[in-house]
Amino acid sequence: MISTMTDPATNGFRRQRFADGDGSDYSDIFEAEYHGSDFASETFATDDTRYEYTVVGDDDLTLRTMRAEGGRRGGVIGVRDDHVVFWLTKGRLEMHFADRTRVVEPGSPYIASASEAYRFESDGTVYNGVHIADSFLRTVGRDLGYRLPDGPLLFDQQDDVIARREPLRHLIGELGPALVDDRVVGPMRTALNRRLAIVILDTFPIRNRGDDVPVANRLRDAIRYVEQHAAERPAVSDIAAACGLSQRGLQDVFARTLDSTPNRFLREHRLDRVRSELLLADDLAGVASSVAVVARRWGFTNPGRFASAYRERFGEDPATTRRASLSARPDGGRASWRVRRAVAYIEQHAAEDLSLQDIADAAGVLPRRLQQLFRAERGQSPMACARAIRAAAERNAADGTREIA
Length: 405
Fold this sequence. Notes:
By secondary structure, the protein is an alpha+beta fold. It contains 16 helices and 10 strands. It has helices at residues 26-33, 134-144, 160-163, 167-179, 187-203, 215-229, 236-243, 247-258, 262-278, 287-297, 303-314, 318-327, 336-348, 356-363, 367-378, 382-404, and strands at 3-4, 14-19, 44-45, 50-57, 61-69, 72-77, 82-96, 101-104, 110-112, 118-133. Strands 1, 2, 3, 4, 5, 6, 7, 8, 9 and 10 form a 10-stranded antiparallel β-sheet that branches.
């Protein structure tokens, strides 16, 4: 069964819902939403599948959710009018394109370009996504001065440097209440849609642009430069030069995609690194002096200002962070024990090529759960922690070499 609300005067705003419990056949989704009448016969959902598919939005952009529990689904998605950016929060999806196969699992966003057809198979997936019209995306791109190809608009996936910042997901979280409000229509909704379109264009590289470097790659290079040189507190001009943008251009892209400025982004990254090191504490001696040493290492030379900035970002004093980490023990039954075990494993195997599965196995949890624990307790992913520990080990080795010399 399909419930829908449309109004031609509001650019086709609608709500739709398809669910097995309401009598909708699985192929109804494809026929209604993917112009799938020519290939609907290839879609299937096993009898034990329970699904609910919802659509909210207008002709330019819609938010979609799919919950499919207990069975397998499959079908063909043909060439269509919109690009799809989606995340899995559960399950597994295989996408078979003409020249490649992609396995998508929970984690980073994935973009499927409008002009690429694919066959898919999925198992127990929970999905959140954005569908954005190709024509609307091109209009926004031209307004931004992007060099767009005359032919199909094809996207590459986000670089991990950008993906772990989750700019699109954060923006959807901010705009979500307005986007699902049927009173927000016309120019107001178009303005919200444009903000999402801009983040997609800024963070997913566009193929076939000749010698033109996509803004997504420049943003990636800027973030990477900040991460590599954070302790040196580089100037905005240095960051801009490293990624090939003007200072104004750098300011603009940070504002559009990260709702930040380069300086604020750098400062918050330095605070994050301080917190990461404090959470690696392994003894209770010298808490205050250790905090000061770590703060200085990341360029915080004024203790009072540092403590204030740290409290503003994390809601607690830096010494409290360190003591809380030290107090976590296996016999306490706290989740942080899992994180501590993972960190210990990373430290022992820092020189090796670690995978998320390796670290999760050592901690005794599933990879997804480990990622959740790390983000909640450390403000970073397990793999980001591994990179930080490896970098710290390399710095220490280099310092030792200099001292010997």
